[in-house]
Amino acid sequence: MLGKLNMDEFAMGSSTENSAFMKTRNPWDLDRIPGGSSGGSAAAVAARICVASLGSDTGGSIRQPASHCGVVGMKPTYGRVSRFGLVAFASSLDQIGPLTRDVRDCAILLEAISGHDPRDSTSADVPVPRYTESLVKGMKGLTVGVPSEYFIEGLDPEVEKLVRGGIEALAGQGAEIREVSLPHTQYAVATYYIIAPAEASSNLSRYDGVKYGFRASDYSSLMEMYQATRTEGFGDEVKRRIMIGTYCLSAGYYDAFYRKASQVRTLITRDFKNAFIEEGCDVLAAPVAPTPAFRIGDKVDDPLQMYLSDIFTIPVNLAGIPAMSVPCGLAGGRLPVGLQLMADHFQEEKLLRAAYNLELATGFANISPDLEG
Ligand code: GLN
User: Fold this and answer.
1) Buried-most residue among 68, 74, 176, 210 (CB within 10 A)?
2) Residue of 245, 286, 324, 320 whose CA lies nearest to 73
3) Domain assignment present for 59
4) 233 lies in a domain?
5) What is the pLDDT of residues 21-52, one digit of tens each?
6) pLDDT at 212 over 90
7) Is the pLDDT of residue 297 over 90?
8) Ligand 1: does its nearest atom lie under 6 Å from the Cβ of 11?
9) Domains contained in the chain, number
10) Tell me, what DSSP letter sits at residue 110?
11) If you ran DSSP here, which 8-state letter would residue 178 be given?
């Protein structure tokens, strides 16, 4: 263990600008964000400070920073990796996963952290494969689905070009490419921003200053202690989520918001099942984020714009399936872009195989940012 890395406070954010500490910069361009919330984890691997790091992914927080920093990042199937020791953000969405320089390191680290843990009741009792054995050359026999809802207005043309180039490279290695539809994708961001804050507002109620964590020093009653602790202890974005979540769960609103969102979540999961089972796709290929890393300060005052940068990563968490970001090139010759691969529950081996072949085609694992310049 080398150390802890920076992140958005309670993993809420897409740029690491909500950190309670300092700014983390993108090693490829120091004026840009590294992504978030696991921005420190991605930046450290990209800058060769460490061989590998861990991140948590509730709505994209491993894959989006991996994409922006040009490293490999995987969100495993919900339940694949124990959440024991992880501070809960949204318990039905959170997963821990690896950020690494290449796909082989990802497989090695995934194998080490996967498996059943009696201390996490949602951790799955499913055997852990030898993940390094899935790094097989060639894509013969595999079908790659391309969901049309992930190539929409607002997708940066350079990102689209690089992602489509990556898909062509997989076709060149023998994969069959098939266009598919995930029709409920458009509702994913709205659904997530009800479910995640609702669960967060409940999880964060334990930060009342009584048992652990920060406690305000100035108060004259128990109620004042609670109020001062939570007012002083939480940052703006965390407070925003607590307020949204508490509102969505309050009497009279629960059915209109939380229950409805849970129903839409089922529809989003069915879309994926349809692509994998009915359409016969082994993996789906899509962008990770609509743009390359944006500039520090660009979205920090506009929460809605910040939330929209998660548009392509959130559906995976709602469905609980595994997905990863693999570098597929540099936009404008200097900003990394990740290609997202998604697979059915516990099909991480298929992800790794496709990722490995993409990596062989791009040769990206040997490219690193110029940190001397
Ligand atoms: N950016 C998303 C959010 O702010 C996802 C964060 C995450 O995956 N931890 O909620």
Assistant:
1) 68
2) 324
3) yes
4) no
5) 999 999 999 999 999 999 999 999 999 999 99
6) no
7) yes
8) yes
9) 1
10) H
11) E
CB 39 within 8 A of CB 45: no
The pLDDT assigned to 229 comes to 97
Q: Is residue 321 part of a domain?
A: yes
Mean pLDDT of 198-218: 94
**Residue of 82, 35, 26, 77 lying closest to 60 (CA atoms):** 35
d(CA 230, CA 236): 11
**322 in ligand 1 pocket by Cβ < 6 Å?**
no
Closest CA to 135 of 83, 159, 164, 100: 100
Average pLDDT over residues 40-67: 98
The range of the structural domain enclosing residue 74 comes to 9-186+259-362
Token readout for 222 is 């128990």
Atom of ligand 1 nearest to the CA of 192: 10
Counting from 1 in the atom list of ligand 1, the atom nearest the Cα of 36 is 1
* Cα dihedral sign, 255-37-345-78: negative
Question: Token digits for 144?
Answer: 């790659």
Tell whether ligand 1 has an atom less than 6 A from the beta carbon of residue 37.
yes
Query: What CATH number has the domain bearing residue 317?
Result: 3.90.1300.10
Closest atom of ligand 1 to 93 CA is 8
Give a yes or no: residue 252 inside a domain: no
What DSSP line would sit under 315-354, residue for residue? HHHHHT--EEEEEEEEETTTEEEEEEEE-STT-HHHHHHH
Distance, in Å, from the CA atom of 54 to the CA atom of 73, rounded to the nearest integer, reads: 9
CA distance 179 to 186: 17
Instruction: Identify the DSSP state of 369.
Output: -
How many residues are given for the chain?
Answer: 373
Our answer on whether the CB atom of 209 is closer than 6 Å to any ligand 1 atom is no
Largest CA distance in the chain: 70
What are the pLDDT digits (tens) for 149-200? 999 999 999 999 999 999 999 999 999 999 999 999 999 999 999 999 999 9
pLDDT of res. 29: 97
Q: Is the peptide bond before 220 cis (omega within 30 degrees of 0)?
A: no
Q: Which atom of ligand 1 is nearest to the CA of 58?
A: 8
Q: Given a cut of 80, is residue 373 above it in pLDDT? A: no
